[in-house]
């Protein structure tokens, strides 16, 4: 079905994915990678990591990597369709649940479920990091740059934007 | 990566956010501004704007709403915009905040996509993007590390095993997300439930 109408494939893929994306956008990256690169061959590995980098560097929620995937598949309509499919269904779910549980702190279930989801989100995000690193860190210099940024960002409160720009500069200089 | 910085839990509770609710245009503009300010995560800016600058909600109300959005599926900050807008101005407010959060960055991203499609193969741009990608992966690793720290400190064996299991299933074996979560979520919720009951008993 995706061969005939790519827009529909985008909408069904991302709407379904968003409903399972517990833990936010970073946790959904492995699934996006699997679908866009391995299943549908919408993008190459390289294009996917480029899209991730662009989404990190630009303002706005990081989930907007789907805008770039959508554009790669079907141009501007694809970009808009992918963005709305990823964002609107869960926002509506949130709206209804928010009205239902006006005071979520009174029940212990939200807290319990949230605590139970924490290790799963971390595992998912670690998987994202591994998949992206395998695609992007192909030289020793690249691995070192990634490691340096990881350490700096973990121990200091430096604005991530500076680290991204420093990476861009090192790429420009041909170091990585 | 907006999940790493949960809002600070305690802050002197202001007199319940008073004043008339903001207009739809004000909601749209406020969310557009926090979205465009939010490089690498919007949550910090959202909290600052809603609680401190506009005083549309108290710190407690913000935390409760955030907790709700965190355990729901989907991009947290997008859910947050809808729920916040709706609490202040009903469904129209939710849509105004949602559109404010997403419209401007989506337009920027579309322009970047066009630029990338046209010039993505230019050698200089390739190199710059390669460098940025390396740094972006480093940032993600740092977030994972920060989130893991409390689990390591508590030596929470069950959580660490679940985390490792999900990492291996998705990152190494590349299994589909739905299948993994269908197993992992019930196991994790069940384990958390029994562990808490044991502590309480």
TrEMBL record, chain A:
Instruction: Identify the keywords attached in UniProt to this record, alphabetized.
Output: Cell membrane, Membrane, Transmembrane, Transmembrane helix
Give the top-rank taxon of the lineage listed in the UniProt record for this protein.
Bacteria
TM ranges are: 6-30, 51-73, 79-97, 109-133, 139-155
Q: What is the lineage of its organism?
A: Bacteria, Pseudomonadati, Pseudomonadota, Alphaproteobacteria, Hyphomicrobiales
Q: Which GO terms describe its cellular component?
A: plasma membrane
Q: Which InterPro entries match?
A: CHR_Transporter, Chromate_transpt
Taxonomic source organism: Bradyrhizobium niftali
User: Per UniProt, what is the membrane topology?
Assistant: Multi-pass membrane protein
Family, according to the entry, reads as follows: Belongs to the chromate ion transporter (CHR) (TC 2.A.51) family.
For this entry, the protein name equals Chromate transporter
Gene Ontology molecular functions: chromate transmembrane transporter activity
Give the signal peptide as a residue range, or say none if absent: none
Record localization: Cell membrane
UniProtKB/TrEMBL annotation, chain B:
- Looking at the UniProt entry, the stretches that span the membrane are 24-46, 91-116, 128-145, 157-173, 179-195
Keyword Transmembrane helix included in the entry's annotation:
yes
Where is the protein found, in the record's own terms?
Answer: Cell membrane
Query: What's the short name of a Pfam family annotated to this entry?
Result: Chromate_transp
Query: Where the protein is mainly located, per its record?
Result: membrane
Asked if the Swiss-Prot or TrEMBL record annotates the protein with the keyword Transmembrane, the reply is yes
Please state what the protein is called.
Chromate transporter
Q: Which GO terms describe its cellular component?
A: plasma membrane
Bilayer disposition of the protein: Multi-pass membrane protein
Q: Which GO terms describe its molecular function?
A: chromate transmembrane transporter activity
Superkingdom to which the source organism belongs: Bacteria
- Name the protein family: Belongs to the chromate ion transporter (CHR) (TC 2.A.51) family.
Alphabetically ordered keywords of this record = Cell membrane, Membrane, Transmembrane, Transmembrane helix
What residue stretch is flagged as signal peptide? Answer: none
């Amino acid at each position: 079905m995706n061969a005939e109408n790519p827009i529909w494939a985008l909408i069904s893929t991302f709407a379904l994915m968003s409903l399972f994306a517990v833990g936010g956008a970073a946790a959904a990256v492995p699934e996006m990678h699997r679908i866009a690169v391995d299943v549908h061959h919408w993008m190459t590995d390289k294009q996917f990591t480029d899209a991730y980098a662009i989404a990190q560097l630009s303002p706005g929620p990081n989930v907007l990597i789907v805008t770039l995937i959508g554009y790669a598949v079907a141009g501007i309509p694809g970009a808009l369709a992918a963005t709305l499919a990823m964002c609107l269904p869960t926002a509506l779910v949130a709206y209804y649940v928010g009205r239902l549980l006006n005071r979520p702190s009174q029940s212990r279930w939200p807290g319990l479920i949230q605590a139970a989801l924490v290790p799963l989100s971390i595992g998912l995000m670690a998987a994202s990091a591994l998949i992206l690193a395998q695609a992007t860190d192909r030289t020793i210099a690249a691995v070192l740059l990634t490691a340096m940024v990881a350490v700096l960002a973990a121990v200091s409160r430096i604005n991530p934007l500076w680290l991204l720009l420093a990476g861009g500069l090192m790429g420009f200089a041909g170091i990585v | 990566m907006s999940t790493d910085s949960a809002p600070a839990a305690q802050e002197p509770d202001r007199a319940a956010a008073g004043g008339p609710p903001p207009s739809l245009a004000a909601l749209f503009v406020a969310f557009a501004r926090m979205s465009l300010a939010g490089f690498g995560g919007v949550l910090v800016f959202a909290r600052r704007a809603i609680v401190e600058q506009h005083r549309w909600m108290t710190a407690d109300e913000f935390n409760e709403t955030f907790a709700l959005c965190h355990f729901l599926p989907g991009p947290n900050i997008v859910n947050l915009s809808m729920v916040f807008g709706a609490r202040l101005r009903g469904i129209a407010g939710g849509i105004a905040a949602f559109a404010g959060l997403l419209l401007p960055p989506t337009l920027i991203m579309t322009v970047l996509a066009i630029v990338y499609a046209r010039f993505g193969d230019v050698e200089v741009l390739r190199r710059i993007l390669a460098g940025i990608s390396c740094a972006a992966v480093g940032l993600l690793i740092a977030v994972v590390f920060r989130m893991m720290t409390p689990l390591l400190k508590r030596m929470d064996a069950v959580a660490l095993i679940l985390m490792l299991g999900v990492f291996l299933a998705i990152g190494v074996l590349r299994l589909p997300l739905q299948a993994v979560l269908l197993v992992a979520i019930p196991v994790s919720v069940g384990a958390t439930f029994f562990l808490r009951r044991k502590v309480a008993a």
